Amino acid sequence: MLRLRSAAVDRIVRLSGAPPSAVAPVRRELRGSKLPDLLLDRGAGPPFARELPQGALLYLLIRLLRPARVVETGVRPGYSTAWLLAALEANGFGELTSLGPGPTEGRVRGVADAPIGQMVAPRLRSRWTLVLGNTEARLRSLLDRGDRIDLFFYDNGPDPRRAALELKWAWAALSPRGVLLAHRVDAHPAWADFCRAQGVEPQILDPGPPPLGALGMAPRR
To answer: Rounded to two decimals, what is the model's pTM?
Structure first.
């Protein structure tokens, strides 16, 4: 269920700067993880279950990168949020700020009716700040706090203008080792345009579905 594509794992190693030997212990954690069952119990139906391997990739990236500050936009039931928080908890380090609720357009059936953060178990919430009010002004205030971001996850729907804006702002707020993630990069041209503006072809961490893009600030090897 949590089988990881080798190419995606290799990309995460490069993005994080961690040694390849760091992957095996996290793979063992994932094999013994109760999080997939917890997510299913908290309402993650078949469409979310198909994304379990991608959730595991988020976990692996957090475990290897060891970010101090993570920001995600577009949170709704909190599927990806739960994976991010579980990895931060395993690190014993780092905080996640989520801006939501995200739009429902293009999302799996039933998401519109799910309470915000439904899939995030109480035991995972100690490192989580949920900011309600999914506006550009609210995002700018989060990004302008002063401390740099080590990981930014765009999951804020298919509006290409909003996606382009968030990617641009987040890139400027990343730390020197920061990583930019974008979910469903096939939904609009913003990710491809952003990558080309940085002088690289569109960077895909995992083809999915849905495809997940990733670009790091550190020089690419």
So the answer is: 0.93
What is the spatial distance between Cα 62 and Cα 95, in angstroms, rounded to a whole number? 11
Alpha-carbon span 183 to 188, nearest angstrom: 11
- Looking at the structure of the chain, the number of domains it has is 1
Contact 65, 19 (CB under 8 A): no
> Which residue's entry shows tokens 């080309």?
196
Rounded Cα gap, residues 43 and 134, in angstroms:
23
Q: How far apart are CA 85 and CA 81, in angstroms?
A: 6
For residue 1, give the amino acid letter.
M
Q: Which tens digits make up the pLDDT trace of 9-63?
A: 999 999 999 999 999 999 999 999 999 889 988 887 776 767 788 999 999 999 9
| Cα separation, 129 vs 146, whole angstroms | 17
Q: Range of 101's domain?
A: 6-216
Nearest to 71 by CA among 9, 159, 131: 131
